[in-house]
């Protein structure tokens, strides 16, 4: 079946450090891939997306590239800020699954000044 | 992206009672989804609600426990029935976007005593 696996957290970084959060997926066909962010006490916000192989999604300094050969969609940011502290979820929407999203377990990021 | 509101934002309820959560969207949408996020966990889809038809429930969720209404293209309700402490979670509604993404409401934080 379809599934998403993220690196376990929590991840603790110093401000201005480089961030990578790994995400791999299993799916039939060609899913769409997403990163969502959940700030403390809030709902989920769409951070970025990619709908086909080799697409790069980007937003607010975050990037992720859809790698079909490695079935991965790793999230990166060159210089994190304290305000980036949140939980990050990788998700996929598989073809012919009625539009539902399948989420990874989430990775908590804590950025220290 | 759609603007989504939920009511109530939080509630504390006694076991054995029921709570109805409302989800309002600022534009007409085809599909609405209800998710549960248990403490410290990822999101699990409860059901998909389409206007004019019965909701489609995921494995492990049943209509008697989580009845859903979808009276029009901008509104849906989820009821959590006969609650127990295990139902303490964040309940989120979402709507579909143009590229298989979903946009989420702020969530309803439910505590059952």
Write structural notes for this entry:
By secondary structure, chain A is mostly beta strands. Chain A has no helices and twelve strands. By secondary structure, chain B is mostly beta strands. Chain B is 0% helix and 52% strand. In chain B, strands 2, 4, 5, 6, 9, 10 and 11 form a seven-stranded mixed beta sheet that branches. The mean pLDDT of chain B is 94. Chains A and B meet through strand 5 and strand 6 of A and strand 5, strand 9 and strand 10 of B.
How many DSSP E strands of chain A?
12
| Largest sheet data of chain B | 7 strands, mixed
Question: Low-confidence parts of chain A, pLDDT < 50 over ≥5 residues?
Answer: none
Which structural class do the helices and strands of chain B define?
mainly beta
Largest sheet of chain A: 6 strands, mixed
Strand content of chain B: over 45%
Q: C-alpha Rg of chain A, in Å?
A: 14 Å
Spell out the helices and strands of chain B N to C.
EEEEEEEEEEE
Mean pLDDT of chain B: 94
Total helix count of chain B? 0
What's this model, at a glance?
The complex is a heterodimer of chains A (113) and B (113). Chain A has 113 residues and is mostly beta strands.
SSE blueprint and pairings:
The complex is a heterodimer of chains A (113) and B (113).
Chain A: E1 3-6, E2 11-14, E3 19-21, E4 23-26, E5 32-38, E6 44-50, E7 56-59, E8 62-65, E9 75-77, E10 86-93, E11 101-103, E12 107-112
Parallel strand pairs in A: 2-12
Antiparallel strand pairs in A: 1-4, 3-9, 5-6, 5-10, 7-8, 8-9, 10-11, 10-12
Chain B: E1 4-7, E2 10-13, E3 19-25, E4 31-37, E5 43-50, E6 56-57, E7 68-72, E8 75-80, E9 89-96, E10 102-104, E11 108-112
Parallel strand pairs in B: 2-11
Antiparallel strand pairs in B: 1-3, 3-8, 4-5, 4-9, 5-6, 7-8, 9-10, 9-11
């Amino acid at each position: 079946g379809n599934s998403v696996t993220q690196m376990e957290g929590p991840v603790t970084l110093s401000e201005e450090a480089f961030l990578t959060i790994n995400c791999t997926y299993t799916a039939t066909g060609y899913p769409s891939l997403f990163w969502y962010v959940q700030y403390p006490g809030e709902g989920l916000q769409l951070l970025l997306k990619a709908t086909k192989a080799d697409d790069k999604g980007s937003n607010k300094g975050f990037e992720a590239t859809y790698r079909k050969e490695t079935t991965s969609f790793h999230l990166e940011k060159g210089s994190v800020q304290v305000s980036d502290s949140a939980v990050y979820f990788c998700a996929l929407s598989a073809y012919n699954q009625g539009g539902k999203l399948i989420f990874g377990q989430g990775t908590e990021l804590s950025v220290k000044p | 992206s759609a603007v989504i509101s939920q009511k109530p934002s939080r509630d504390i309820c006694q076991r054995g009672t029921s709570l109805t959560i409302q989800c309002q969207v600022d534009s007409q949408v085809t599909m609405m989804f209800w998710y549960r996020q248990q403490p410290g966990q990822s999101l699990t889809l409860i059901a998909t609600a389409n206007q004019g038809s019965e909701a489609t429930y995921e494995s492990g969720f049943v209509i008697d426990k989580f009845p859903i209404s979808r009276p029009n293209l901008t509104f849906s309700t989820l009821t959590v029935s006969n609650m127990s402490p295990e139902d303490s979670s964040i309940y989120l509604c979402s709507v579909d976007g143009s590229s298989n993404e979903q946009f989420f409401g702020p969530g309803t934080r439910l505590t059952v005593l």
